[in-house]
Design brief:
Oligomer: single chain
Number of helices: 4
Number of domains: 1
Low-confidence stretches: 3-9, 15-19, 44-50
Shape: globular
Strand content: over 45%
Helix content: under 10%
Order of helices and strands: HEEEEEHEEHHEEEEEEEEEEEEEEE
């Protein structure tokens, strides 16, 4: 059934692209950061008692999202609207930076009509379109932008990390593996979205059976990932409200004779808007997804509480993101990230911003990361 669906969508896209004569535009975005951090603890190795003091990191960064995008749009004789996006050029993502390629690169097409919007290609999944995420949309887009991580040494997440402290977003957020998505139109405030990803390790090229791997007791890829989200939005007396709830599932399978727990995650958000003020609460819970079965690890979850306020050319924002993970020894690992940001729009797509951040990570009640710092940004959109 899944193969039939994918073949059908491929035929539809090929048929459309063979006759499309679209309006094409080129746009771009650049960002540059300078920052400094004071890190009093940086745990070395696996021994939480061995610490290095006085770790201060400062310097410049070209951010994560500088890019050049080509987009096109056209309307067919049938009335269908066809829109596409392709990342023609992105920031340096070679060598040690190759992990960033999957974050910024897009190659997708959307087909819209009275039925809603169908998308196919390298693009974000349903959760990115549905959940409220002021962590990414507030002033300076931190902590979701991830640039604060350039200025301190954290110990959670990633194949080289000593500790898993949990995730602050649903697992496939900002994942651009090949997928098919559907977004409905809004009916009396209700809408829904769905996404299907055959293989999260597939970013546009065939992969072998070993591409689905689990690293550092933390899942990295699943197959047959299905995402389903529903949203209700309404406005009363100038106050806007959004409530979103979604579920995601996928197969982990067996790797090198070891069975892993399948992917099961819920995520929901609540958002309020009034004039230039917005606040949201978001939570994701993945349990023991991707962990070795019956190894006691799990309770992988994240929570964010954020607010932003904009007036004239000024934007202000504050966020707190908390994560948690229980390891195989039944110890709780946690993290708390706080950001306070301000941004000023000079006009013409140019922005200046400033963020203060504070990051704390702990493993079994022992502090393994304690860092705070300031970063400033020059952003230019064209």
């Amino acid at each position: 059934m899944n193969k039939t669906i994918l073949i059908g969508f491929s035929a539809l896209v090929l048929a459309i692209t063979s006759v499309v004569k679209a309006d094409i535009s080129i746009s771009g975005y650049q960002e540059f950061f300078v920052g400094s951090a004071d890190q009093s603890i940086a745990t070395q190795g696996t021994n939480a008692a061995t610490t290095e003091h006085g770790v201060d990191r400062a310097g410049m960064s070209n951010g994560n999202f500088s890019r050049l995008n080509a987009t096109y749009s056209t309307q067919l004789d049938s009335g269908l609207q066809v829109d596409g996006s392709y990342t023609a050029n992105a920031r340096d993502c070679q060598g040690s930076r190759d992990a960033m390629c999957g974050v910024v690169n897009f190659n997708s097409v959307n087909i819209s009509g009275s039925f809603g919007t169908i998308g196919v290609g390298e693009k974000f999944d349903a959760g990115a379109a549905m959940l409220s995420r002021i962590t990414a949309s507030g002033a300076m887009s931190e902590p979701d932008g991830g640039v604060i991580g350039h200025f301190y040494t954290g110990r959670g997440g990633g194949a080289d990390a000593t500790y898993n402290v949990g995730s602050g977003n649903e697992h496939n957020y900002a994942d651009n593996s090949m997928k098919v998505t559907f977004n409905s139109n809004v009916y009396s405030g209700f809408s829904f979205a769905a996404g299907f990803t055959p293989n999260m390790a597939n970013e546009g090229v065939p992969v072998d059976a070993q591409a689905q791997t689990v690293t550092n007791d933390k899942y990295s890829a699943f197959s047959d990932v299905l995402a389903l989200y529903g949203k209700y939005q309404a406005e009363m007396d100038g106050i806007g409200m959004q409530i979103v709830y979604g579920m995601q599932s996928g197969n982990a399978g067996q790797i090198s004779g070891v069975d892993y727990a399948d992917y099961e995650e819920t995520a929901y958000s609540i958002r309020l808007d009034y004039a230039g003020f917005a606040a949201d609460y978001r939570k994701n819970e993945a349990g023991d997804s991707g962990q070795i079965k019956n190894n006691n690890a799990g309770n992988d979850e994240g929570t964010s509480i954020c607010a932003t306020y904009s007036f004239a050319s000024v934007g202000l924002g504050a966020c707190q993101v908390e994560t948690n993970f229980t390891d195989t020894d039944n110890f709780d690992n946690n993290s708390t990230t706080r950001t306070y940001s301000a941004e000023y729009q000079l006009g013409g797509g140019v922005k200046l911003g400033l963020t203060y951040f504070d990051v704390d990570q702990s493993a079994n009640n022992v502090t393994i990361t304690d860092a705070d710092g300031v970063i400033s940004r020059l952003a230019v959109g064209f």
